[in-house]
Design brief:
Layout (H helix, E strand, L loop, with lengths): L3 E3 L8 H5 L28 E4 H4 L14 E10 L3 E7 L3 H7 L7 E7 L7 E5 L2 E3 L7 E5 L3 E6 L5 E9 L2
Antiparallel strand pairs: 1-8, 2-3, 3-10, 4-9, 5-8, 5-10, 6-7, 6-9
Length: about 170
């Protein structure tokens, strides 16, 4: 079974769809969200998020669910210059609680890059460093996959996270 894949050309979600969203993802009300795996007082780690729960159903983005996942959730993520997300495995605590999921092994995550790679932007998945991505490149993984990301450049790094249960 494939644990992670790069799905750029086969994925129906493309950057043109995202550019046609009813809002500018760069101007969302991003917030720092506490994560039990990290010390939130360390200002060098973690970015800011705007997700479907913060959105309170103002925008229906179900059309982004080309995976056909159940309990589909989305979150835009902004990682500022000098910030990074240390190596970790997603815990999915809030997601599992919200959707009453007891078996986290069924949960999948996708990361879509919203802009072309810029110098200093990094992503690592299963000990493989990812650079030079194109807007719309997508990586998927299961609940127990180690990954991290960083912004050691001078421009914001924007991604879209999708989470769900594969049918």
């Amino acid at each position: 079974m494939i644990m992670n894949t790069k799905e750029h050309s086969d994925l129906n979600i493309n950057i043109e769809q995202i550019k046609k969203l009813p809002f500018d993802f760069k101007k969302l009300n991003y917030q720092r969200v506490p994560d039990p795996q990290f010390d939130i007082s360390d200002k060098s780690i973690l970015g800011e998020m705007y997700n479907d729960k913060m959105d309170a159903n103002k925008n229906n983005l179900d059309f982004l669910n080309d995976f056909g996942w159940q309990n589909f959730a989305w979150g835009f993520y902004k990682l500022s210059p000098g910030k990074w997300i240390p190596p970790h495995v997603d815990h999915f605590e809030n997601y599992a609680r919200f959707y009453n999921i007891t078996d986290k092994s069924k949960i999948k995550r996708a990361l879509i890059f919203l802009e072309d790679w810029k110098p200093g932007h990094t992503f690592m998945l299963n000990n493989k460093l990812v650079l030079n991505w194109k807007a719309g490149d997508c990586y998927t993984w299961k609940h127990n996959t180690k990954h991290w990301g960083g912004n050691f450049g001078v421009e914001q790094r924007y991604t879209l996270q999708l989470t769900g249960i594969q049918n």
